[in-house]
Structures are given as structure tokens and as C-alpha cells.
Amino acid sequence: FVSSQVEILDWETKKQLCFLDKVEPNATIREIRLMFHKLHPRWYPARQSIKLDPKGKSLRDEEILQHLPVGTTATLYFKDLGPQIGWTTVFLIEYTGPLFIYFLFYFRMTFVYGLDERFTSSPHPVVNLACICHSFHYIKRLIETVFVHRFSRGTMPLRNIVKNCLYYWGFAAWLAYYINHPLYTPPSYGKKQINFAVIMFLLCEAGNFSIHVALSDLQRNGSKTCKIPYPTKNPFTWLFFFVSCPNYTYEVGTWISFTIMTQCVPVGLFTLLCFIQMTVWAKDKHCTYLREFKDYPSHRMPIIPFLL
Amino acid sequence: MAAAGGGSRADNGYGGQQARRRKGPGALATGYLVIYNVVMTAGWLVIAVGLVRAYLAKGSYHSLYYSIEKPLKFFQTGALLEEYLLIAKYLPGIVPSSVVLTAFQVMSRVFLTWAVTHSVKEVQTEDSVLLFVVAWTITEIIRYSFYTFSLLNHLPYLIKWARYTLFIVLYPMGVSGELLTIYAALPFVRQSGLYSISLPNKYNFSFDYYTFLILVMISYIPIFPQLYFHMLHQRRKVLSHTEEHKKSE
Pathway it belongs to (chain A) (predicted)? Predict the structure, then answer.
């Protein structure tokens, strides 16, 4: 029986933070993280970045010690990732905010539009429709976060939540202000425009949901391994023929439809920013797919069929 | 915000590193950069000369803006090209953080030039305009000649000293001129509703340029001290490094 030894050094100062002897060679990095955590209680596993090289990438939990290029005494480097927060928690906070903030404006709370307008309601049906759609969108997202999504990484740095919430909550307030304003002007092409937008909205929401379910099903068997997503019997997933990240495509579609429905510049600006952000994410994901799979369908584009 | 010396750049400016590699593809790029910096130096010299001539002709320093309006707009906006090249990484050897800082400075200068001074005609006769124009002019002449000499690998200590010292006076001078100009523009913006749109309108959007200008002025409070102290820090680093170098010779 040969046991390994592991020493863990600080990535910057190279000071030895811990020395583990009698480690089983087939121990996983997860187990090593737990052992490190016992010796340094304030660095819980999620905030540990353990790497082979001080400037290298963090090792995954599933990696096995004896498969790494180390001798019987392994030297690993530790970097503190800072306080972490779970993705599920982040999403729940991020999405609950806009839901309730929108209501503040919809119900015209006292401080929003002035005392004379408090608790009045809009004469335009589209304003009610917009509230229903906006709420539906965020409730759907909350449900997906709890029941559908499987996150490949458990946590993110705590400071991200401030940044993300400012963005989502801020924009929700900004666009809700104009849509529910007493001086709101309904869309120029009236019912035709609104009906078109509603249909587009529902189709995109259904599409987005279908993709999330399909992606989640992919991960059901192989916990953290990556697989190529393919179209299924559900027609909404047929977008996988053309793009790597149809969930983003549908999401942009949802917001475009909301812009058309409300004919409101702040909504349009939010849609534009969403589009830019999602294109960046989609291109990233697309590159990851291309790198990991030799047989990845070559005609697929990241987010817009044939174009982008 | 007037960047006297633009101290956010690395020690020798972007020219320094380029000049060290004398052979190979660097030569052509260096050539273009030298031409660009010489042109910019000349441009700001034209503005400086224009100011002096106008002052001598009029006998007073009021309303000198009109005599240099066009070259000022041209060369200040030209700095946008420079910023684009920096961001697109066509210009070599810059510390990433300085791209953000210089972007800030360039944007604020262009904003002052076009969105305030050009747009609100009534402030063009204000003395505060002269204040920032003079600050920018001296700063830019020194900065572009600094880059030119660095690229040619023949940097006189005087230019380096000037670039990292004069900002101490020029930067606050420029900032004061800018803030006073924006402040002077406020009543005219309020009166004319410049660049503002109010509800109701079919785009369901409102924008109040008056409030926006006030927010811009407030933003100087956190940003100006940061930039100023960053440049003081750069100064200590650059000038003490040179002295050590001299001592070792």
C-alpha cells in the first residue's frame, strides 16, 4: 500500500499552508479540499482554488490525485477565491427583485408618481398585459432556477451579487417607471402591434423553457460531463440545428417582443444590452463546444442562425 | 478632465517600448506613430499660437475661443482615434488600466468640446472656457512631444519632467475651467430644453439634459482625486527611477 503526501502552498507567497500525509493515491481533489478545510476552517471548499501551477487553472473536484502529473509528494497551490455564494441563491435574489419592483410601479405606490396618482390604474389594457408578461417571465425564471437548472459550478464570488442585482433591479425599476407612468403612450399600431408581440412573447418563452429542459436532461446521467445538445421531438428545440445556444436566442426574442408590446425606449435599451451580453456568453459557450468536441456540427452559429 | 501629462501611461509612454525594438515590423509602425504624434504636437502648437495672436490682436483675453474653435474641435476629436487604437490594441505596450483612465479623460474632453461648449453657444464667451483650453493646450503639446521623442528614443529630461510635473497645476486648472463652464451652461440648457425630451411621447422615454449635466459635475468629485493621485504616484515612480539611473552612471 503506497500512500501519497500532499503539501499545499500559498500561490503568491509559496508559504506552506498545510501538509497532508497518508493521503490515498486515488483521493479526489474534493476530498483534499475537505481535508484542507479542516485545517483552515475559514476557507470552506467552495472558496478554495487548488492548482498544480501557481498561475494555472483551478483543479476540478473530480480529479484524482494519482492521475495528476505529481510524484508521491504532490505540491499544490492554493488561492482564496473570496466569499462565495451559491448560484441558486444568486438567481433567486436576482429574479425576485424585478418581480416585486415592477409591482411597486404597476400599483403606483405613493412615492413613485406623486401623491395625486397613487394607487390609480392605467386606462390602457396594454399596461396590464405588460405587467402580466413581465411577471410571468420572472416567475418562470424562478421556477426554472429551483426545478430545472443544473449548475456546473456551485458558487460565484459574493461581490457579483451586488453588481448583478444593481443591473437587474435597476433596469426593472427604470422600465417599469415608464410603462406604468400616467403619461404612458400605447403602441402606435394599436391592437395589431400588441397581439403580434404577445404571440411572439409566448412562443419565445415556450422555446426558452424547452431548451432549458433539454439542457437539463442532458446532464441527468453524466453529472458534470459536457455533452453536445441535439434537437429533440419538441419543435422548439429544432433551433439546435442552427445555433449552439438557442436559450439565449429565445431570451432575446422575448425581450424584443416586450419592446414591441410596450414601445418603450428603456425596454429597447435593456433588450440591446441583454443581446450584447448573451452574444458574448453564446460565443464563449460555442468556443467551448468546438474545443471539447471534434465532431461538433460545423454549420451551427453561436446565437443567431447563419449570422452571429 | 484635463490630463496634464496623461500620467496613466507606463513609464516611457507607448513609444519607449516600441523604440527599443529597432529591427523588424516595429519600424513601420513606429514611423506611423511618429508622424501621428508630430502632427498632433503641431496641431496643439497651432492652437497655442492662435491663442497668443488673438490675445495680442484684441488686447484682452475675452472671447479667445472663436479664434481657435475649429482646430480645437479637430485635434481634440482626433484623440478619439488614438483612444480607439489603444482599445483595439493597435498601439503596443500599455498597461490595461490606463486604457480605461485615458478613455475617461478623452470622453470627458470630447464631451466638454462638443456637448457643452459647442452646443451651448452662450458659454463660448466665458472665461472658464479659456481656462480649460489653455490647460489642455499646454498639456497636449508636452504629451505629444513626449511621445514623439520617446519613439525616436531621444527623450530630453526636460520634457519628461514637464510631463510629470506640470500636471500638478494644469490638471486642477483644467478641471476648474470645465466645471465652471458646465455650471455656466446650466441656465441656458434649462431655458431651451436642449437635448431633453419629456413625457408624453410615443417612445415613452424622458431625458433631462440639465439633470444629466449636474450628475456629470457630481461625478468629478469621486473621479478627479483618483486620477490626480494616480498621476502623483506615477510621478514619484518615474522621476525617482530616472534619478537612480543617473546615479548609477
Answer: Lipid metabolism; sphingolipid metabolism; Sphingolipid metabolism
183-202 in chain A: CB under 8 A from chain B: 183-185, 188
**Are residues B205 and A266, on separate chains, in Cβ contact within 8 Å?**
yes
In a domain, A308, yes or no: no
Give the tens place of pLDDT for each residue, A102-159. Answer: 999 999 888 888 877 788 888 899 999 999 999 999 999 999 988 888 776 778 888 8
Q: What is the pTM of this model?
A: 0.76
- Domain limits for position A66: 4-82
For residues A185-206, average pLDDT: 94
Find the residue in B nearest to A262 (Cα): B204
In chain B, which residue's Cα lies nearest the Cα of A260?
A: B203
CATH of the domain at A14: 3.10.20.90
Q: How far apart are CA A84 and CA B72, in angstroms?
A: 50
Residue B136 lies in a domain: yes
Look up the domain containing B38 and give its range: 27-194+206-248
Same domain, A121 and A258: yes
Q: Is B199–A179 a contact, with Cβ atoms under 8 angstroms apart?
A: no
